[in-house]
Every structure is written in C-alpha cells, then in structure tokens.
Design goal:
The complex is a heterodimer. Chain A contains 15 helices and no strands. The chains are: A mainly alpha, B mainly alpha.
Chain lengths: 324, 292
Amino acid sequence: MTNTTTTEPALGGARGAASPTPDVTGATDAGRASRPNGRDGRKRRRAVWGVMSTREKVVRYVLLIVVLFITIGPFLWQLSTSLKGAGEDIYTANPSFIPTEPTIENYLKVAAAIPVWRYIGNSLLVAAIDVFGNIVFATLAGFALARLQWRHRKLVLGLFLATLVLPGEATIISQFVTVKDLGLADNLVGVALPGMIAALNVLLMFNAFRQIPEEIDQAAVMDGANAMQRLRYISLPAVQGTIAVIAIFSFIGAWDDFLWPLIVLQSPQNLTLTVGLQYLQGTFATDQRMIAAGTMIAFIPIAVIFAVLQRFFFKGVEEGGVKG
Amino acid sequence: MRANRWFTPWLLVLPALVWLVAFSLWPSINTVRLSFTNASPLGGVSQWVGLKNFETLLADPQVWEALLNSVIYMAICLPLLTVLPLLIAVLVQQKLPGIAFFRTAFYTPVIASAVVVGLIWTWILDDRGVINEMAQALGVVQGSVPFLTDRWLLLLSAISLTVWKGLGYYMIIFLAALGNVGKDLHEAAALDGAGSVRRFWSVTMPGVRGTMTLVGILVCVSALRVFSELYILTNGTGGPGGQDNSLVMLIQQYARGFTGNLGYASALSLLLFVVTLIPMLALARMNSKADK
C-alpha cells in the first residue's frame, strides 16, 4: 500500500483533478494498461446515470411538449376565442390561434350580462373566510394533536381520520339541512361555513408538526416555555411550508367549488362566480366568445396565484407533505 | 417548569372538533335519519315514511342508469389514470432545464374550476367547435360528431374531461412517491447496463406499486363522485332524457325546488356512500394481503 501512495503522484500527475481518488489498480503491474480503461468506464457510467444522452434529452423534450400541448392547449384556445371580435369567424376549419384583431369587448359583454364584479366579490368573501379559518384553526388543532400530551388525544385524532372516508357529496344534503336550520340558506356565510375547518387540513398540520424533533420541545419545556410559546417560537417557523400549501388549496377549493354553492344559493345577487357563469351558457347559448371571456375571468386569478406560489407547493411535495 | 393546564389542548382543538361534529359527524347521522322522511327543500314539517324512499330507489330506472354510468366511468378512468400520470411523473422527475415550468403547466387543469374546464370543453366539443370543424375539413367524418348530444358520446366526453383534469393531480402523487424510490437502486441497475425502459419496469414500478394501488382507489372513488363535468357538459340536464346522470347529479336535482325531496336525496346519498366504500374495502383487502 505504501507503494501505491508513492508511485501514484508520479504516474497520475497528468490526470489532475479529473480523478481525485487514487486508483488502486495503478499499483499493480497491469497498471498502465488498465488505467485508460478505468477512465472510460467512469465516463460511460456518467452517460448512463445523471447526464443523459442528447438523444434521450430530445425525446424527453418532445414528450414534454406533447403533454404541454394537451394540458395547456384548451386554455389557450379559450383565451384566444375570448379575444376574438365579432368580425372574426370562430366557426372555421382553419381557425387561427392568434386573434386577428384582439379585443376586450367580450369581457365587457360579460359584465353587462351578469353582475360579474359582484360574483367575484362573493367568491373572494367565501375564499377569504375559508383560508382564514383553515390556517388558524387547523394549525391550532394540528399542534395540540402532534405536540401536546393529553388524554383522549388518540381518540380525537381517530375521529379526524375517520371523516376522510366520508365522501363529501354523501353528506351534502344533510349539511344543507344544517345550514338551513342555522338560517344561512341562500347566504354566502352558509357557503363558507362547512369548509372553514377541513379535517384533512388538521391532519396535514398534524403531520407537519410531528416531524419536528421531540428534543427541541423538551429543551424548550426545560427552559419554562408553555404550550403557546412553543407553538409560536419553535413549531410555527418549521411548518410555514405546509401552512402555505393549506392556504393555496383552501383558496383554490373555495374559488372553484361548484356543487355546494349551487345547492345553498338561490338569489341571483348572491351567487359565487362559478355558479353565476352558468347563466352565460343558459341565456346566450350561442355567444361562445362571451362564455370564453367569462371562463377566463374565473380562471386567470387562480392561474396567477398558483404560478406565483407554485414553488411552495412543489417544495411541499418534495418534502412529502402531499402524499395522500 | 410550567406544566400545561389540562384544558389547553382541548381549547386548541375545540374549534376544529366543533366543525367536525357539526359538519361531518352529525350530517352523517342525520343523512340516515332524513332518508326515512319526506323532508322538502322548502321547509315545512317532514313525515316519517319508513322504507319508502329505499323502495322507490331500487325501482327507479334513473338510479340504475346512473350506477351503470358510474361503472363505465370507473372502468375507463382506472387504467388511464393509474398509468398515464405515472409516465408523466417519470418524465418530469428528471431535473432538466425548464422542468419547473412543465410541472406547473401540467398541474394547471387541476387548479382550474370544473366549471371553467367544463365550459372550455363544451366549446371544443361543440357541433361547430374546433374538433368537429377540423375533423370535417380533413374528411375524417361526414357531418358533425354529436359529442354533447349523444347519450354514449356524452359520457365518453365527460370521462375524457375527468381524465384530462386528473393527469396533473395523480402526477403529483406519483412524483412524491418516485422521490422515495432509491436513487442507488437506479444507479446499480444502470451500472448493470439496464436502459431507461428496463429500469422503469424493474426498479420504478415495484417501488411505486403501493402508490398505484392508492391512486387506483382514489380514481375509483372520484369516478363515483363525479358531478361538475357531467353537469356542465349537459348544461344541467343530465343528457338526453337524463340518461347521463351520475348519483351526485340525481342528489343535486332532488335537493332543489318544488319537486325536491331531501328524504329521497338522502337515500341516494347513503347509496353513494355504500358504493364508494367498495373500492376502499378493496384497498384494505389488498393491503392486508400484501402484508402477509
């Protein structure tokens, strides 16, 4: 072995930084002959794993673009339709993707046909209540379930888990009865109320809090920190990613929801945007440009919010936060 | 050292617990109670009608039609949504330049409201929409294909919409699972000369088998719960003669207006619950078998 270390610098000087680890085979008699092979082997290894061949890269990008076309194409087509003026034929065999004379007149027509600003406000109100409720109360409950020791903790946790089995649609009728009994039928608060604290979010927070090492808490307890102080100064900073995910999805869930507001709401002025959009289809069945504009009004805010916050989401996925 | 007061955890968990009881547990029990009454959405006194709702339900051809639709929905969605999203996840797992953009883009249909994507597809599949116009121009079909007015084509259109909207959702679940499939295992396989396809079958697939089962169950349950796609594509009618209804569409129809019957809608809800239990129990079975 001492041989190896003494001969190695002299023999391998030219290799420089390419191979920092001394090659054991270099010490043998076949050293000179085997060395180039070793170098080749290393190159081949890299080609197979890690750095991929140009051909594979091209294939991958082609596939990615095909999937991109399938997933995004319909949205772009709708956007394109919404910007086409009355003078441009949208019913044609070779339709152009880019509007010849882009116009926002269809968007103005939507505002004239339905009280779209009011619907946006209604949807925002419902979303705001649900985001607030889920962030605050799911965090508190998740913390108590994950970081505090108390009797019946397992039982309560079990209750939250058990409700995941219930398909929401199966209880929607009696939920409506409950909301009606509370005097909140045809009321936006009635729409927001049931989704204000979702069991799934409590469990997500539970899962996030549980991953903080116990020792940190124990140290804080020794220093005399009470439960609320531990929540605020130790646990909360560690679960911000999950809170962001919950906020994003509470907003999207409330903004996109359709069945529940459809059942609860009745009066035209109380509708949320998704329910209100239907009236575009009902009353002006043939004006596809206007329907397209209406869908874009509902879609663009969500798309922007998600595009801005997506890194939190995908970080959460990689941390294992969204595993179903 | 300050000890926790015994009620601190209860205070923290109380709001969530109240919500759980008021909007999950109680409604579950109340659904059973309501299903024995003739409660009306307009209020008023409801009467106990015994098993009448369930007798009506079993004899209701619309219910059987809806169940048939659900079975078809499940049978088509299950293979497509357990395989395609996995392939896409493998595609976006490699950290290539711009991959974050592709991931976000592929997820877009998931974050859009079912109403939005429903209306988008209504336009694309319209008698004079882009698919029909182009198919006719290319001479593939004579006359327009009735995607939105034929009983079976309508169902297939809704299924395509569900599959399209679900790709990104299940892609994310698979992506999280793929992160747990050992890199060293892949590396070892690569060293032994296994190509991408071989590695997919021998390393990736066994590594995500559990996730595939889970996704399969999720797909089945959501296929049984389908509502918005069918509602929007049929403009709320349930297709020609209401033949394209799902159970949830029937529930919604009975929840509204003068002809509504919350008792009957509750009986339908119980049926929905029982039907969705089947794939979940299947999962439990498969898991316990795998453990043996």
